[in-house]
Amino acid sequence: MTINPRGRSNIVAAEPIAVLRPLRQSDSEAVARWYDKATVLAGERCSLGDLLDSTGRRRTLVLTDGTNQEPLGLMLIALDDPEDGWATVALLAIAAPEQRDLATEGVALLETNLGQKATRIRAAVPADVGLALYFWLRLGYRPAAADGRLWMIRDLDA
Q1: Calpha distance 55→42 (Å, rounded)
Q2: Contact by Cβ (8 Å): 121, 156
Q3: What CATH architecture is 2-155?
Q4: Which pLDDT tens digit goes with each residue over 86-129?
Q5: pTM of the model
Q6: In this structure, how many other beta carbons lie within 10 angstroms of the beta carbon of residue 148?
Q7: Nearest by Cα to 45 from 55, 57, 31
Q8: Which of these, 43, 128, 130, 158, could form a disulfide with 90 (CB 3.0-4.6 Å)?
Q9: Whole-angstrom Cα distance, residue 93 to residue 43?
Q10: What residues have CB less than 8 Å from 14, skipping those under 6 apart?
């Protein structure tokens, strides 16, 4: 992985391995099989019902590997949070730790797809998952403490 000068994660791979799409009602059964044991790389788990109810500035996205549509990860994104121009990754969960590359590509896709919707992005690192801190550092995010939490922050327009 390399970081381009515009400040966005830039994954170097022969073929993309990740697809990022909206969560569908039909995904809930597949997600339920792994969700309680998922590796959380940002935020914290909430009920699956809350994930399906993504309206307005809150969106739940599914990560797939591109070969099929089965969900292998989830992202819950809140736009204009904590203020205008920000996007918060309220949850990034992957079915298994070995799917970190899928999550890495998913974050890169998110950064690209945010376009004019956000100029800064942040993700809360779970205190009990050292892998999460390393994951975000590797993508070029910088740590900042606020609200009693450790946030990983990146300027998208730099």
Answers
A1: 20
A2: yes
A3: 3-Layer(aba) Sandwich (3.40)
A4: 999 999 999 988 888 899 999 999 998 887 889 999 999 987 77
A5: 0.85
A6: 5
A7: 31
A8: 43
A9: 9
A10: none
